[in-house]
């Protein structure tokens, strides 16, 4: 009995693991996707660069040995040696600019990690809702196929008994064939959406995974603030904007570093000379004078790079505003469409279908009227499915831009 219970538990666990909610898919993607791993390594490298920038120059130790021979009578002879220690000074302007540039680089890589994570989450959300949409379309297409096959069989029966003309059978057969083609296309789109979702998560999902569908009801959607308030939030919280600002800061610090490198480099040197009859010590300063190379080239390059980064930051701010406005408008339009379809169009087309079906059964209307009503209801239902997907897509874009 314990073995049977354990096997049942394992089977239940394996089945449960094959059904995923959206938060589970997002967690899997953040743990397994190579893009996130690469971004984490970028942060590690930038952190190491900060440590490098903070490091002090190493001292230089020098030992010289030789011999002294007398060239004049009475001069001492014997071994001689020199021991010297040189320490280059890390000037405060250069050190501060170097650390500032490295710290801004770390901020940029951390923002890039956030940006990669947000883009990955957005991709998972879009493909998740895309798969839900395609599955809903496939289920609807299969229901349409079953219904039209049933209508075709009933029409054929009426044609065989002489109650309906042969044209009705031809029309019903054509509608059934179209429904069969639509069902096959819908199933193919389901498979493509499954592959896209699996790829966005990181190819760690089993082949037979299923989704725990979420309700896409309008009352469950968050209430968004006004566009102006949302724009202020996005400009402060967006990872791409944070990265652009960090890159501009790094460019500014790099320019300050290049200018500071024009200062003379200073080293302190101490030495002890040991001669056969004399022991002497010295201490002094080694100064490199920037006479010929005044770093005009590196300073000009850093200045142009800073100007380019400032322009890119302005462009990123402009693009961010445009993307937010577009997503906000798409969300409002699709939300209104969903409300109109749910409360009016779909219900009306469904009521019209019931009337047409009843009229067809009682012989008051022909097959063409019934099929037209069927087509109008299917179009309204498919529009509702597409509008719900568009609403979720726009909401995912807004959440991504807002740093969620």
From TrEMBL:
One of its GO terms (molecular function) is efflux transmembrane transporter activity. The keyword Cell membrane does not apply. InterPro entries: MdtP/NodT-like, OMP_efflux. It comes from the Bacteria. It holds the Pfam family OEP. Keywords: Signal. Residues 1-18 form the signal peptide. SUPFAM superfamilies: Outer membrane efflux proteins (OEP) (SSF56954). Belongs to the outer membrane factor (OMF) (TC 1.B.17) family. PANTHER family: BLR4935 PROTEIN, OUTER MEMBRANE CATION EFFLUX PROTEIN. This is TolC family protein.
